[in-house]
Write a structure and sequence with these properties.
It is a single chain. The chain contains four helices and five strands, in the order βαβαβββαα. The chain has a single domain, classed as ph1033 like fold (Roll). A hairpin with a 6-residue loop joins strand 3 and strand 4. The chain has a five-stranded mixed sheet. The protein has 147 residues and is an alpha+beta fold. It is globular. Helices cover 20% and strands 28% of the residues. The protein binds a DNA duplex (12 and 12 nucleotides) through loops.
DNA sequence: GCCAACGTTGGC
DNA sequence: GCCAACGTTGGC
């Protein structure tokens, strides 16, 4: 899962109450579907910093609460307010994520791109802009072996 | 700041 | 349903 560290970083997550935060603001249907349908309690998730000096994987989170309606979609004061999301039929969802640990170092996008073992990885495919995406077990294990 | 690659909107 | 215009993401 991606976040711009200037908006919400791995350190912000670590500093959150119970080291847990709601992953709000996802406004893309493909990403929404994964949040709503695929992400399960206990799943482990890489935290990816995007749009920053060194984009890359910085840590690991755990899903502690499965999908529920994104309250920021209902609040006109929120950046991600969506008047078309009806509380009776919510359009956008969140999960709660808990900080597990930071990686010993940032595994940068350029380093990941250079790994043949990751050539099929969703994150590295051309034109990919999804903020939430699946990862294969083998990719997960390989990435951790780089640390 | 630039720009490629999407995704969304809305007229027709 | 098509598609042009526009908006967003995110690396560089």
């Amino acid at each position: 899962m991606k976040s711009e560290p200037s908006e919400f970083s791995i350190d912000d997550l670590k500093a959150s109450p119970k080291q847990t935060n709601m992953w709000d603001g996802v406004r893309n249907y493909q990403a929404r579907n994964m949040i709503r349908d695929s992400i399960k309690k206990g799943d482990l998730v890489f935290f990816y910093h995007s749009a920053c000096a060194e984009p890359g994987i910085v840590g690991i989170m755990e899903v502690v609460k499965e999908a529920y309606p994104d309250p920021t979609a209902f609040d006109p004061d929120e950046n991600h307010f969506d008047p078309k999301s009806d509380p009776e039929d919510p359009r956008w969802f969140v999960v709660d994520l808990k900080f597990k640990r930071k990686l010993k170092r940032t595994l940068s996008l350029s380093e990941l791109k250079a790994c043949n073992q990751l050539s099929e990885m969703r994150l590295l495919q051309r034109g990919n802009r999804l903020s939430v995406m699946p990862i294969e077990d083998a990719e997960w294990d390989f990435i951790l072996s780089l640390e």
